[in-house]
């Protein structure tokens, strides 16, 4: 950050908010805390009229604002707002959560882009543990646009053999048991049980579920941990890394804008 200051670069993240979803607000507080520690400004943009047009207009204004480095649209979007229209409006050079149509298209094409922070966090976690996925079988459970799908593309780009599973997958356990790496993003506490993991497999738990006032993952951690080769915890693991990746991408956007 000192180096950025020297170069007179002041990263700023604009966060567009239109709902008071408790999980969203809690994620925003974590984001603000880390941003403050890193010297990144956060501008909260609360939309009074929650329509697709209001989102598009505000995104365009922030896109043109030279003081804004990155734009994050908090989800879930309010009812009646067209997610596709909002995605389409996000300018790729400020789309620091890789959520827009242009960024996702670039990811699909294997071109340089900001990546969805959660999917990026899974890769950072694997890198941090020195886990190479090249040639290995990866099963991803969950196919959302924020986690499962981009993660599949990122792992594919690293030469993993990827299977994406979802609610219609038949005999899911047979698929996950074959995998060297199992990533779970389903949103159900303790979903991935002991019979679904091959001994020695790497297990990455993306799930963030509130149960009785505490956060638990999608993996039955006490049962799966003893047989896994490596396993990420919840809380900890992917969650905090997601915010870190987001901040890295805000700084990168600010640097690119300053060039
Ligand atoms: P989502 O949009 O609700 O998607 C859930 C996925 O799970 C869907 O693809 C769904 O399949 C699949 N699924 C549901 N039931 C299943 C079953 N019985 N068998 C196999 N697949 C099943 O959720 P999301 O936004 O990806 O989030 C998933 C979890 O990750 C949540 O706990 C969320 O809080 C967490 N999360 C964490 C972070 C973070 O730590 N940074 C970020 C984002 C999300 P269909 O597509 O067929 O419906």
Verbal overview:
By secondary structure, the chain is α/β, with parallel strands linked by helices. It has 2 domains: about 1-95, Leucine Dehydrogenase, chain A, domain 1 (Rossmann fold), CATH 3.40.50; about 115-235, 3-Layer(aba) Sandwich (Rossmann fold). It contains 10 helices and 10 strands. It has helices spanning about 1-5, 20-40, 50-65, 85-90, 100-110, 115-130, 150-155, 170-180, 220-225, 240-259; strands spanning about 10-15, 40-45, 70-75, 135-140, 160-165, 180-185, 200-205, 210, 215, 230. The chain has a 5-stranded parallel β-sheet with strand order 5-4-6-7-10, sandwiched between helices. The protein starts with a helix and ends with a helix. Bound molecules: NADP nicotinamide-adenine-dinucleotide phosphate. NADP nicotinamide-adenine-dinucleotide phosphate binds near residues 141, 143 and 185.
Strand content range: 15-25%
Taken together, the total number of domains comes to 2
Strands ordered across the widest β-sheet: 5-4-6-7-10
Order of helices and strands: HEHEHEHHHEHEHEEEEHEH
Number of DSSP-assigned strands: 10
- SS content category: alpha/beta
Instruction: Label the overall shape.
Output: globular
Our count of helices gives 10
Weakly predicted, low-confidence segments: none
Q: Looking at CATH, which topology of the largest domain would you report?
A: Rossmann fold
- Rg, rounded, reads 19 Å
Distance between the termini: 16 Å
Helix content: 40-55%
Name given to the CATH homologous superfamily of the largest domain: NAD(P)-binding Rossmann-like Domain
Q: Could you say which small molecules are bound to this protein? A: NADP nicotinamide-adenine-dinucleotide phosphate
Query: Mean of the pLDDT scores?
Result: 95
The CATH first-level class of the largest domain comes to: Alpha Beta
Q: What's the story with the biggest beta sheet?
A: 5 strands, parallel
CATH architecture of the largest domain: 3-Layer(aba) Sandwich
